[in-house]
Amino acid sequence: MPAKTLPPVRPARLKAIDRSRELLWLSQHRREYFGEWVVLNADQLIGHGKSLESIMERARALGIERPLVIRIEEDDLPRMGGWL
Questions:
Q1: In whole angstroms, what is the distance from residue 84 CA to residue 80 CA?
Q2: How sure is the predictor about 77, in pLDDT bands with cuts at 50, 70 and 90?
């Protein structure tokens, strides 16, 4: 049985994006968008809602190629358990 060879690895064509402005925006505004998709470009909210498709169409129409897309869940907040 012949040994399988892997295809050559090519460097990525996309450059890394600094997402610090998006992360700062999320830390300040995430509580306003529980259960929704949020699309950001730097510190600008492109759109939000229950349907990702319509928000992504808006981003494409604005010419934004690589926005940050995230669904904000309430579950990712720290919880406290037990009786008070």
A1: 10
A2: low
